[in-house]
UniProtKB/TrEMBL annotation:
CDD domains for this protein: HNHc (cd00085)
Protein name from the UniProt record: 5-methylcytosine-specific restriction endonuclease McrA
HNH nuclease domain span: 111-161
PANTHER family from the UniProt entry: OS07G0170200 PROTEIN (PTHR33877:SF2), SLL1193 PROTEIN (PTHR33877)
Annotated segments matching region Disordered: 1-23
GO molecular function: endonuclease activity; nucleic acid binding; zinc ion binding
Organism: Rhodobacter maris
Superkingdom of source: Bacteria
SMART domains: HNHc (SM00507)
Keywords assigned: Endonuclease, Hydrolase, Nuclease
């Protein structure tokens, strides 16, 4: 955040001299709220010049990007035309920044509804339909099935209704692919298939999407 003088301000309870604490806090400053990214978001690259995340794309609000620049944690690779001014200096708002220290990716992927849908490419694992999805236990819970990566898949409402409390064989449905726990790299690669609706022109050289971009 910025204080009234335009300089990076410490968060409540944060010791500005605690470099270890700052690094720990800095590692987790992903911003996923669309309202915070409405104006001049910055694409954040790891020290290897790859995005920290593709889905959601690793973006910071301009305030966080400017703070990171002032704390010498990132290098600016591209800028917007707009300028933010303080009493002491002016700085063009960063549009692409790269971390000066490599952040090691998490090894395990959290088992959440969003990550499950992402693993399955946002399509029903029985018929391939896209759109409104729910999830289904391959082995029904009433028959001892557990809620895990290996036993839960994305499913459309018709397929979920058809399968109901039956086994795969009894329902006549087949999985498009075996359900398994994804690695962080798996999710990174899958996320590349789903570019966001808005890509600033300064980001393109640093992104490698599998889907075609509209002109």
């Amino acid at each position: 955040m910025l204080d009234h003088g335009g300089r990076p301000g410490a968060r409540q309870g944060e010791k500005t001299g605690d470099r270890h604490g700052e690094k720990a806090e800095f590692r987790t400053q992903f911003v996923r709220e669309p309202s915070a990214l409405r104006h001049h978001p910055a694409l954040v690259l790891n020290a290897d010049f790859r995005p920290l995340s593709y889905y959601p794309l690793s973006l910071w609000p301009w305030q966080e990007a400017v703070k990171a620049v002032c704390l010498d944690r990132v290098t600016i690779l591209a800028e917007y035309d707009e300028v933010v001014r303080s009493q002491r200096q002016s700085i063009r708002i960063p549009s692409v920044v790269v971390l000066k220290e490599f952040v090691r990716p998490q090894k395990r992927v959290a088992f959440t509804r969003f990550n499950l849908f992402l693993r399955d490419g946002f399509c029903c694992q029985y018929c391939g339909a896209k759109g409104d999805l729910t999830f289904d236990h391959v082995v029904p819970r009433s028959k001892g099935g557990v809620t895990s990566w290996e036993n839960v898949v994305a499913a459309c409402a018709p397929c979920n209704l058809k399968k109901a409390n039956k086994s795969l064989k009894a329902s006549g449905l087949r999985l498009r692919k075996p359900a398994r726990e994804p690695s962080a790299e798996d999710m990174h690669q899958i996320g590349r298939r789903f570019p966001p609706g808005h890509l600033h022109e300064s980001w393109i050289d640093f992104l490698y999407w599998d889907a075609e971009l509209e002109a």
